[in-house]
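Figure-free illustration: sequence to structure, shown twice.
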Amino acid sequence: MRVRTLFLSDIHLGFKRARAAELLAFLRGVEAECIVLVGDIVDALSLARRVFWSPQHTQVLRLLLARQRAGARLVYLPGNHDESLGIFADLLRGQMEVHREWVHRTLRGERLLVLHGDRFDSHVDYPNWLVRIGAASHDFTLLLNDGANRLLRSLGRPYYPLAERLKLLLATSARYIERFERAAAAHARAEGYDGVVCGHIHRATLRRVDGVTYCNTGDWVESCTAVVETLQGELQLLRWREGTHVATVGVSELAADPA
């Protein structure tokens, strides 16, 4: 599959439950003129607690750098989990572009603000006790996700984003996501952009929010998703399935904001 631009975020290399094998399979099936890494590529926070790094994690980095050497433009925007890796970013300068925020112009002339998204956390603050409960619940759903997908793999079935589905059943998670999306869209609109591309909250979405295009690339811990700009300039959300790239809704199909 050939695309003009590939947006990826929240890969979390160095985290035990990162879906590095799935990402490698996905990347081997996609050729992009430009690859934009929208933060949390390496999980420094997880590595500080527990050192974990598999050969597949190294292969992901090697494959991305190989694409750059083959002619693809590679843009890296640190997120809240990898912003402390200053030395890592310095090492990559010259091999890829490193920015805090970046503006992408689509083939159709739309100007999209690209940033990780952690700056919008202040718009969706919750009490500390609720944050701690949410973190514990998230860890538990990831454990269930791993167990369920090991079983599915043994049965020859494709990956299923169980953790993502369980998270959306929680009312607090749904409210957090809605507030985050509206904060990101409002910022892009106030700055005069046609849309925003971000990650951070591990909720893959491509839709119109308050008159602007909101793109969240999702992640490679739960959802296994990416946003692409096709060779015709259309934005699409891709969900990886074993051996395929399933395109979900494209923004041109969105006639109005959902109620």
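We now fold a second protein in the same way, so the two outputs can be compared directly.
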Amino acid sequence: MFITPYPPGQAPSQRFRFEQYFPELKKRGAEFLISPFLDLKAFSVVYLKGRWVGKTLGFLRGFFRRTGDLFRLKKYDIIFIHREAAPVGPPFFEWIVSRVFKKYMIYDFDDAIWLPNASENNGKLTMALKQFDNVRAICRYADKISVGNKFLGNYAKQFNANVVYNPTTIDTDEHHNTTTDHSNHIFTIGWTGSHSTVQYLDELVPVLRELEKEFNFELHVICDVPPKFQLKSLKFIRWNKKREIDDLLNFNVGIMPLRDEVWAKGKCGFKALQYMALGIPAVVSDVGVNAEIVDHDINGCVCRTPEDWKFYLSKLMSDPEYLRKLGSRTREKIVANYSLQSNKENFLNLFSKPS
């Protein structure tokens, strides 16, 4: 049984950490149920401003669903919990799974979710109701912990020695299976993400304003909400699953700015993985795993200062050969180290119980 926060197919953390492995699980004879806390109706309003009636009803349906899951537990040998069984309250469900039903429990997370963090539209309520220290308790309950990077793993190992590094991966055969044409459109600097990370683009606005004085380019921001800043180069594109790859293929360069803070160290570099799988050089902040994913001056650029950002973005826009050289080396890194195909056995081994 997969216990998830969000409906299937909607959240990148679910799609690229475990949902894309479902065909392989079925091929190997596994039967499973996916039980999200939020249904599609609740998910469509949960990050919007206001809409408290819809949010409240959605949460009530989620708790009702979790209660029903308790009656279904006997049918399943393994319980896989992504992030948390419920977004508020103590980890009762996880405790019952582990201590009462004594089920084999895998706990998976890909962010520093033990740190206080909330969306802007739900901030005060989330901070009041959410118990961020649930993570340490769930780590203790779990039989195995799956984490997206070593920073998260080091935290989990304080409470449980059985930690597996399971990187977020890209399906380079069936999904990200083509590369961009760098010559068929106006030069495009691109960013993709969600309401929770669009704030990091604010750090680059002064740099982008300076670049607008020297270069003709577009800044494509693919997100569920528009950014708050204004730039003449800005083109907002609302995220759409069906157009996801086509929209990304318009990028010449993909950017991933981060602030050097503890929360950001827990990020798993997913934006860079997506860009590079499509032959798009990634320009990233030197925070967390970014410098492990991006090999500086080989398949992308790692920046420490605003001056770095301006220098490398300028170089990529003004030097087509440099752009081509970096773009030609991106995909091989992802295929070898961060693809579904390269990580498949590692992921499936999560479900192997110790003898």
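Summary for the second example: The radius of gyration is 21 Å.
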